[in-house]
Amino acid sequence: MKNVTDSFVSLGHWPSAGSFGFNTDILATNLINLSVVLGVLVFFGKGVLSDLLDNRKQRILNTIRNSEELRGGAIEQLEKARTRLRKVKVEADQFRVNGYSEIEREKLNFINSTSKTLKQLENYKNETIQFEQQRAINQVRQRVFQQALQGALGTLSSCLNNELHLRTIRANIGMLGAITD
């Protein structure tokens, strides 16, 4: 460490200009060489470095501008997409509401038509029952009438003689003739 500090300290004490020789102190000569090289680089490379930095600055600014434009376009597209999404949500809600309304309407129509059909079937059933009851009553009446008629004929034929029998037949035929005219 002492050599390093000595070389810096010895920089302040240059030997007189009358002698020329080689300095063998590597650290002192490296610092001098580096400072000369850096000075030459700064003097001559300042323009090139400035141009490189300006070009880099312009590219960065152009990239930022392009990014801002892309960002603006992306924000605009995002807003359009959000607007479309809102419209689609509203339409979906309308379809859902209309669908539910349509389902309820169809349900009520089905219930009403089924109720109407059931009432018609009930009416047909009642009419059929009444018809069958009437038919059964008519059949019973016919049988009762036939049996009564047979009983009456049997009673009449056992009680009547031929002459009375013929008069009764003629009277009945006369009554039947009067009904059919």
From TrEMBL:
One of its GO terms (cellular component) is chloroplast thylakoid membrane. Pfam families: ATP-synt_B. One of its GO terms (molecular function) is proton-transporting ATP synthase activity, rotational mechanism. It is a single-pass membrane protein. It is found in: Membrane; Plastid, Chloroplast thylakoid membrane. The chain crosses the membrane at residues 26-49. Keywords: ATP synthesis, CF(0), Chloroplast, Hydrogen ion transport, Ion transport, Membrane, Plastid, Thylakoid, Transmembrane, Transmembrane helix, Transport. The keyword Plastid applies. Its main location: membrane. Component of the F(0) channel, it forms part of the peripheral stalk, linking F(1) to F(0). F(1)F(0) ATP synthase produces ATP from ADP in the presence of a proton or sodium gradient. F-type ATPases consist of two structural domains, F(1) containing the extramembraneous catalytic core and F(0) containing the membrane proton channel, linked together by a central stalk and a peripheral stalk. During catalysis, ATP synthesis in the catalytic domain of F(1) is coupled via a rotary mechanism of the central stalk subunits to proton translocation. In plastids the F-type ATPase is also known as CF(1)CF(0). F-type ATPases have 2 components, F(1) - the catalytic core - and F(0) - the membrane proton channel. F(1) has five subunits: alpha(3), beta(3), gamma(1), delta(1), epsilon(1). F(0) has four main subunits: a(1), b(1), b'(1) and c(10-14). The alpha and beta chains form an alternating ring which encloses part of the gamma chain. F(1) is attached to F(0) by a central stalk formed by the gamma and epsilon chains, while a peripheral stalk is formed by the delta, b and b' chains. Belongs to the ATPase B chain family. This is ATP synthase subunit b, chloroplastic. It comes from Physospermopsis muliensis.
